[in-house]
Amino acid sequence: MVVRSVALLALYGFLHALQPITEFGRVLAAYGGVFIIASMLWGMVMDGFRPDRYDLVGAGLCLVGIAVIMYGPRG
Predict the structure, then answer these.
(1) Residues 51/40, Cβ–Cβ less than 8 Å
(2) With the C-alpha atoms ordered 11, 38, 24, 61, is the resulting torsion angle positive or negative?
(3) Domain tally for the chain?
(4) 7 lies in a domain?
(5) Domain of 63?
(6) Which of 22, 47, 51, 72 could cysteine-pair with 55, CB 3.0–4.6 Å?
């Protein structure tokens, strides 16, 4: 089961690498940050998860990273 899961995850990443547009890497990186935040919010709402300060700092860093990726100056 684990080997199949790892293989599917590797295939997922490989297929994304084949995208023809150069901005796709930025989109995927920003999506990763949004996924982290959404996962934490889901846990809070649905499972009663209460984040500690390190969870909140990490989520904040993700938000900053998303902003840098999406709104950073391009030359």
Answers:
(1) yes
(2) negative
(3) 1
(4) no
(5) 21-75
(6) 51
State the amino acid at position 26 in one-letter form: R
| pLDDT computed for residue 15 by the predictor | 81
Q: Flag whether 26 is in a domain.
A: yes
Q: Name residue, tokens 């990726």.
A: 69
What are 11's two structure tokens? 């295939």
Query: Tokens at residue 46, please?
Result: 């649905």
Count of all residues that appear for the chain in the document: 75
d(CA 6, CA 41): 26
CA distance 59 to 36: 7
- Residue 12 dihedral angles phi and psi, to the nearest 5°: -55, -50
d(CA 24, CA 30): 10
Say whether pTM exceeds 0.85. no
HSE-CB of 14 using CA atoms within 13 angstroms: 6
